[in-house]
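TL;DR need structure tokens for one chain.
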Amino acid sequence: MPGAEPQPDGALTLLDLVAVRRWAVLTRSLYAARRAEIDALNVFPVPDGDTGTNLYLTFDGAVERTLAAEEPASAGALLTTFARHLLWTARGNSGVILSQLARGLAEGCEAAEQIDGAVLAAGLRRAAERAQQAVTDPKEGTILTVARAMADAAEQAAEQATEQAASPVPVHVVATGALDAARVALAATPDQLEVLARAGVVDAGGAGLVVLLEALERVCAGQRGRPSPDASDRRSRLRPGRSHPLLGPGPDDARGADELPDYEVMYLLADSDDDAVDALRERLLGLGDSVLVVGGDGEWNVHAHVHDAGAAVEAGIEAGRPHRLRITRLVDAHPGHEPAPARHPGQASAGAAGEARTGSASGIVACAAGAGLESLFEDAGAVVVRSGPGRRASTGGLIDAIRAQHARGAGGVVLLPNDGDTLLAAAAAARAVADDGIEAHVVHVRTAVQGIAALAVFEPDAAASDNVLAMQAAASATRHGAVTVANRAALTSGGPCSPGDVLGVVDGDVVIVGSDELDVAREVARRLLGSGGELVTVVAGEDAPGGLLEAVTSEARGAHHGIEVTLIDGGQSVYSVLLGVE
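>> reply
TL;DR here they are.
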């Protein structure tokens, strides 16, 4: 079969191994460049929308894992390997759906040494089907709608080319048809989902899929694209001279794993500005790789893999005020995935609790967005995985945590994602460990207060299947609310808001727009208690206002005599107050 030879206009007829590599590199580059743009499509007017960041971290992590894989022999084999790694690194619901799209594409193309347009079309159809299967309650106006349009157009383009006696069917024809249809479907998403129309945006996940198809079309058009610095220089910085399954062979394979950065450094950066952050980013690029600096308005999330952790921290001190610092040694971790949760700060106490419970019937894995919440779950014997806006837990991290809990002697494991955007990753992790004979169940908790309610009824000596029923019932019976600050203008159920407005959230919907956090917290409590309640849980964030407990207690007891109010120092970002009523 001929190689990925160009048509007269320079477009490709076939995708060979090299072309698939170029697609992967270009996609990572585009996600890196446009993650903030995709994040901004978040329909919630608070800074927790991280679809673009999740897609980038998912894709970038899969590239690093593929770095350690054996050199694939064909285009189909590379897609299969990469899809497997995408599942491991998937972050957030968007990352899991991306991994399922890749899985379907790989299933449609795995037997192909080189991929023609007909095979590509079949793979894109299978990709859309796999993505649909990943979502329990699929809705129109989402990435699933865009994926279906992509597949329909790809098949139509392949059929038309076949009728015109094109053999093999050119991949560029199929890629162009898929991209054009996806763009049209994306533009129509606000007409299908009211929440998108109200916010004046298109679906963020659908936009991420369009970026993936843009990279495919550019490669099929014969354009090599212009990878970002972290993509084009990755090999020389990460493993100089090493053969890379995606980037291609290096000049000297004798240099190996000793070139890997020694440390992962993560911290939040405050009291800085855009110029200082740009300088920090350049400094970190000189120190290592996997550099990610995201945020704005005075607060940034910083991540890098470096040899000199001290220099990375000093760079942060020069740029602003680093806090919530975490340094993890990478040399004994598996290349390409995050360290086991046992390395997280405070994990020693969880280990001790786990040893005391060896042989118990059930164990817990919980996600937490703040240090206080981590401690609370760890004290109950849970293995905790850090997860929050900008750095959602990956499927691989959750798999590691489940295995760690199982190794302590737990016969079954209960997962508490404590965040709606981590539900699919938790479900994928539970399915993955089933292949190892480990029983794991997911409690569908969308907020930390629901997770706390579920934790209260957990019985270590009960079977995991029994626990999950009781915990789900407790979580479902907990009404939840929050207080946060808008970072952009939007139209909400509580009226229009502007940046800086204080927002009150009740059961996932913004229903209050105000100016004082304590006043909004009182109003959220009042609405949550409208249908009664016996216990109010208040989780204070790192920016919680003074007098919070007194304000909520006064409101609660004024409405219901004798009600109990509990304050927890959660330490989470974004939401200064989380409220739960049982």
